[in-house]
Model the fold of this input.
Amino acid sequence: MGPRVAGTAPRRTRRRWVSAVGLLAVAALLVTGCAAGPNPDAGPAGAGFWLGLWHGLILPVTFIVSLFNDDVSIYEVANNGNWYDFGYCVGLSMFFSAGPAAGAANRRR
Done:
């Protein structure tokens, strides 16, 4: 190991910390665009399977946003019934299951 230059380690650590905070802020801004809510332009037809799937996938983000905003809901009340519910459940299970992520993590070890 060569001689250590004074002041290089804290500068690297500070740069990593600033990068991590910046990345977290950008990710938070991108994720807040996923919040579900009532769509007055959708009309009386209601939400179907695909919108239920999307709402199930974004539920964790939508739930946090709904705690601070009364205009955001985590479930579309004006839906087509069973197909929306099925898509919602599939979306929830896709988000909360560790399937592909756990498989990839085990392969790396």
